[in-house]
Amino acid sequence: MLRNDIFSVCFVTMYLFVYIGVLQFDPAIEYGMIMMLLSPVLICWMVYTVLRYGKYDGPELGDEEFGYQDKPKEELGIF
User: How far apart are alpha carbons 9 and 70 in whole angstroms?
Assistant: First the structure.
């Protein structure tokens, strides 16, 4: 679970949404400050997990300089 890149992205995203929501209410500001202190650690964990365990399923570039997955190479034309 801690090595799953999709789980880490979803968890950190939901955490940040809850953090933003907590900041909207005055009685919960203390919890927001605690969450603010933990957020850099969670973001670093998310980035590490995605870079270390994430899988890329797209085509390799090979000798090409740029890679576009939404358009075929023939449609790109000359820049």
Answer: 23
Of 38, 1, 48, 45, the residue nearest 16 (C-alpha): 38
Whole-number Å distance between alpha carbons of 73 and 48: 32
- Interacting residues of 16 by C-beta distance below 8 A, sequence separation 6+: 39
Distance between CA atoms of 27 and 30, rounded to whole angstroms?
8
> Residue 11 is encoded by which pair of tokens?
């968890």
The pTM assigned to this predicted structure is 0.73
Q: What is the pLDDT along the chain (79 residues), one digit of tens a residue?
A: 778 899 999 999 999 999 999 999 888 889 999 999 999 999 999 999 999 998 877 777 777 666 677 777 677 766 6
